[in-house]
């Protein structure tokens, strides 16, 4: 993978690119995949698991709110500061996020599952996203690692 000078400087929210920019990107990638799969309208539930360091320090570093924005389809380098506050306030007020920007789904920071003592084999900053239909059938699942500098790696694509 070629890395340019603009890749070295992450643009995004939060005090730590590995705890906000990377997780936001991973969530946005997951939302985009869900949208292109054709299964978005079937989604009835969402599960987000945070592992290791993301779970241990996520509240203080803004990991959870960055993930909510990513699940709505926002990318860290494209969202404006006023959009951040507005969307987070709307999610908090309604208890719903707009999955991939279009499907209202009851979900908030309090619904994320934190596993600070579980370290996935690839990296200490792991996260899994799973969506299921009304019958509990898994529609799409992915695990990502935020490896620093806002870069993400999908489980199984570590090389």
How are the SSEs ordered, and which strands pair?
Elements: H1 17-37, E1 45-51, H2 52-61, H3 63-71, H4 81-94, E2 96-99, E3 103-106, E4 113-115, E5 125-132, E6 138-148, E7 151-154
Parallel strand pairs: 1-4
Antiparallel strand pairs: 1-5, 2-3, 5-6, 6-7
Molecular structure report:
With 159 residues, the chain is an alpha+beta fold. The protein is 34% helix and 26% strand. The chain has four helices and seven strands; from the N terminus they run H-E-H-H-H-E-E-E-E-E-E. A five-stranded mixed β-sheet has the order 4-1-5-6-7. The chain has a two-stranded antiparallel ribbon with strand order 2-3. Helix 1 runs parallel beside helix 3. The longest helix has 21 residues. The radius of gyration is 15 Å and the shape is globular. About 4% of the residues have low confidence.
Number of helix segments?
A: 4
- The fraction of residues in strands falls at 25-35%
How many strand elements? 7
- Arithmetic mean of pLDDT: 89
Overall shape = globular
What topology, given as strand order, has the largest sheet? 4-1-5-6-7
Characteristic key phrases:
159 residues, alpha+beta, five-stranded mixed beta sheet, two-stranded antiparallel sheet, 34% helix
Summarize this structure briefly.
With 159 residues, this protein is an alpha+beta fold. The protein has 4 helices and 7 strands.
């Amino acid at each position: 993978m070629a890395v340019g000078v603009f890749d070295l400087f992450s643009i995004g929210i939060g005090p730590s690119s590995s705890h906000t920019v990377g997780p936001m990107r991973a969530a946005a990638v997951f939302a985009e995949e869900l949208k292109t799969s054709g299964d978005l309208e079937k989604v009835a539930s969402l599960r987000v698991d945070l592992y290791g360091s993301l779970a241990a320090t996520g509240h203080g570093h803004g990991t959870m709110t960055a993930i909510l924005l990513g699940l709505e389809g926002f990318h860290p380098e494209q969202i404006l500061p006023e959009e951040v506050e507005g969307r987070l306030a709307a999610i908090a007020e309604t208890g719903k996020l707009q999955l991939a920007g279009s499907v209202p789904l009851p979900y908030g920071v309090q619904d994320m599952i934190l596993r600070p003592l579980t370290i996935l084999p690839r990296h200490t900053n792991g996260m899994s996203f799973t969506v299921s239909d009304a019958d509990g059938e898994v529609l799409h699942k992915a695990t990502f690692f935020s490896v620093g500098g806002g870069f993400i790696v999908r489980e199984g694509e570590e090389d």
